[in-house]
Design brief:
Number of helices: 12
Strand order of the largest sheet: 6-7-8-9-10-11-12
Structural class: alpha/beta
Shape: globular
Order of helices and strands: EEEEHHHHEEHEHEHEHEHEHEHEEEH
Helix content: 25-40%
Low-confidence stretches: none
């Protein structure tokens, strides 16, 4: 699926997305999910070409033919496989969608959500110029978004934040480094404190908690951890060591809705704000993010923005829409509340495989 506009982070620039979808056929009900693994192993060690065979050879056989009372019961059947959270999430979350449809219940209610609308922010990638970035921020603010997040890296950081703050002194602003810095950059990162940021997201190594704890003691600005939080044990370690003051919960990164709910509950018990991060999902993955964001402790606007920001034509209907007030209304329809456009998906599909009990 081609992006409306390129998206650049410290990993590089992307102009389109290869997207891995999964359908779980459950007693006549089809549950859909999106594996958020990327085209390359840059954001994490997982990518499409690891997720596909892991699902094929291990995760699908682990759950096929099981009589499950609920989607969460799929988790222990897949536990023999170490890691591969994004592949596991694809399997589990499709079953959550099927369960919600089977019970004629909205997915968000099945998850335990309570919000009837969610507040939305946007993530804006590195641009060709600061002027181009400022124009995009102006557009998103005019669209009503409640929080602006910009990507940063060495050479595209302090001067950029300075330009933003000189123009908009009061907006809710944060930045995301995607692990672009090291502890050698402490003095540079300390300069971020002058910009009254909501947070600095994942400034250091993607698998690190210890050095983030050291860095947080050096900064007034809150650190938010993303890539470092793979499961609830990581979240507990980060909270106990003071490695962050905010946590980004991405349902794919942590292995599915069951683990995401555990992290949410832990953060709620410790008064650590959480928000829902995005992975340039299509409408299928975006609908799951919407459902997750209805849980009570999602106190900060997430990266759950409108379909039209990314796609000329999304694969769900209605497309995900954000109001002029920067919010998404929550549907009471069974499942995700969004219908899958099977014809468009078939048109875009370049590879397809069915795993069944006969394999």
């Amino acid at each position: 699926m081609p992006l409306v506009h390129f998206f650049e982070t410290s990993f590089g620039r992307v102009n389109s997305r290869r997207i891995l979808l999964l359908t779980a056929h459950c007693d006549g009900i089809d549950g859909w999910s999106e594996c958020v693994a990327g085209e390359d192993p840059f954001y994490s060690s997982e990518w499409i070409e690891t997720a596909w065979p892991v699902i094929q050879h291990h995760l699908a056989p682990a759950v096929l033919g099981r009589a499950l009372e609920s989607a969460r019961e799929s988790v222990p059947w897949m536990a023999r496989v170490r890691g591969h959270q994004m592949a596991k999430a694809a399997v589990e979350n499709a079953i959550w969608d099927a369960e919600a449809q089977q019970k004629q219940q909205p997915l968000w209610k099945l998850l335990g959500g309570s919000r009837r609308e969610i507040q939305c922010g946007v993530s804006i990638g590195i641009q060709d110029s600061v002027e181009q970035l400022l124009e995009k921020i102006e557009t998103e603010l005019a669209s009503g978004y409640r929080r602006i997040k910009v990507k940063v890296k060495p050479g595209w950081d302090v001067n950029v934040l300075e330009r933003i703050r000189s123009r908009w002194s009061e907006i809710l602003l944060s930045c995301d480094a995607n692990s672009a810095y090291t502890m050698d950059d402490v003095e540079r990162l300390r300069e971020f404190d002058q910009f009254n940021l909501l947070m600095i997201e994942q400034p250091l190594w993607n698998d690190d908690i210890y050095y983030h704890a050291r860095l947080q003691r050096e900064l007034r600005t809150a650190i938010c951890l993303d890539e470092s939080i793979r499961h609830v044990r990581d979240a507990a370690a980060a909270i106990e060591t003071g490695a962050c003051r905010i946590i980004n919960i991405k349902v794919g990164r942590v292995g599915g809705f069951t683990e995401a709910k555990k992290i949410h509950d832990l953060c709620q018990a410790n008064d650590i704000p959480v928000w829902c991060g995005g992975m340039l999902e299509s409408g299928i993955g975006r609908a799951h993010n919407v459902a997750l964001s209805t849980l009570q402790h999602f106190r900060l606007p997430g990266d759950v923005s409108a379909s039209k920001r990314y796609w000329k034509e999304d694969i769900v209907e209605p497309e995900v829409e954000v109001s002029a007030q920067g919010s998404i209304a929550i549907s009471d329809a069974p499942g995700t509340g969004y219908r899958v456009r099977r014809g468009l998906i078939e048109k875009l599909t370049v590879r397809k495989e069915t795993f069944g009990l006969s394999r």
